[in-house]
Design a protein that fits this description.
CATH topology of the largest domain: Rossmann fold
Structural class: alpha/beta
Low-confidence stretches: 1-14
CATH class of the largest domain: Alpha Beta
Helix content: 40-55%
Strand content: 5-15%
Number of strands: 8
Distance between the termini: 21 Å
Mean pLDDT: 87
């Protein structure tokens, strides 16, 4: 099956979400989709052909939908090439063209095809270190990840290494109780690296499959953050030699362009290997996922599309674009 047939086929395939998950994704992106198409309708009003005016208006629509300037310019360039090649493109085709070109752009990143919460079979325990500023939904994301990994049959242990705030430790405890997974914690002000060390030792002794370590979310001093996260990594490696296997940066999608700035700051402070974009359901800024997925050579692994415990999903670019342009 060709790429575009695979993307837009009504048939279910191995990379398709379950029907319930797809409905949740559709609902979660409804505000973003409605806002985008309202702007798009105005951009092509009175026009039958995709010309320079339409492309200028489309550029404005994409930027105002938080796709980001650089990604927007790439999309416009792709459409310009199609106009040049096909000589005539009607505005009624614009939705389909956008859908195809954005999907094509995201496919070049070669990630975002999975639908299941999987962990590598050769990593035990699989150690996931979670970073992000306070307020982005970091603790909630960790709790939902723990739930999904446990649901998938994995034994999970949480580590409360954000010892800067007592509330962070207490919030993670609430999620550990809710999901019914063990948590390793110390007092507020304890050494985060010590908590991480104890968590990994506990996980190894329990023969756990997945370890999720929470970390402090302050960015006021990047050097201190960098040093702290580096120390946490070094100490974890005394227990599990190649830990952490994934450094997940959680971004608040509802902040739009501020999410780009957070990504820049954290990728400068530590090696980030994957991204989670949260709070997409309560805002019209879902386009930020397209821009972040394109701009950072780091895979968007998870997206939050609702408040329910099931509403953290594995990011699948095919399903995302299908829902956005439905």
């Amino acid at each position: 099956m060709s790429f575009f047939k695979r993307l837009f086929s009504s048939e279910k395939n191995d990379s398709s979400l379950s029907e319930q998950a797809k409905q949740t994704l559709d609902r979660g992106l409804e505000k973003s989709k409605s806002s985008f198409f309202e702007k798009l309708s105005k951009a092509v009003a009175g026009k039958s052909k995709v010309d320079d005016d339409v492309l200028d208006n489309l550029e404005e629509v994409l930027v105002s939908s938080d796709v980001g300037v650089n990604t927007t310019l790439k999309i416009i360039e792709r459409i310009e090439e199609r106009v040049e090649r096909d000589k005539y493109l009607g505005t009624e085709e614009l939705n389909k063209i956008l859908r195809e070109e954005i999907a094509g752009l995201l496919s070049e990143n070669n990630h975002g095809d999975a639908t299941e919460f999987e962990v590598p079979k050769d990593k035990k325990p699989y150690v996931l270190m979670v970073v992000g500023v306070n307020g982005v939904g970091k603790t909630t994301t960790i709790g939902k990840l723990a739930y999904q990994f446990k649901k998938a049959g994995h034994k999970v242990v949480l580590g409360a290494a954000d010892t800067f705030r007592a509330a962070a430790i207490d919030q993670l405890q609430i999620w550990a109780d809710r999901v019914d997974v063990p948590i390793v914690r110390q007092q507020m002000g304890s050494d985060p690296a010590s908590v991480a060390f104890d968590t990994l030792q506990s996980a190894v002794s329990q023969d756990a499959d997945v370890v999720i370590i929470d970390t402090a979310g302050r960015l006021h001093n990047k050097v201190n953050l960098m040093n702290e996260l580096s120390k946490v990594k070094r100490v974890m490696q005394k227990v599990v030699g190649d830990a952490p296997h994934d450094v997940l940066l959680v971004l608040d999608g509802s902040t739009g362009q501020n999410a780009f700035e957070q990504a820049k700051q954290f990728t400068a402070a530590t090696e980030v290997t994957s991204l989670a974009v949260t709070k997409l359901d309560g805002t019209a800024k879902g386009g930020v996922v397209i821009g972040i997925s394109d701009q950072f050579k780091i895979p968007v692994k998870y997206i939050g599309v609702g408040e329910g415990i099931e509403d953290l999903q594995v990011f699948n670019k095919f399903e995302f674009v299908d829902s956005f342009f439905k």
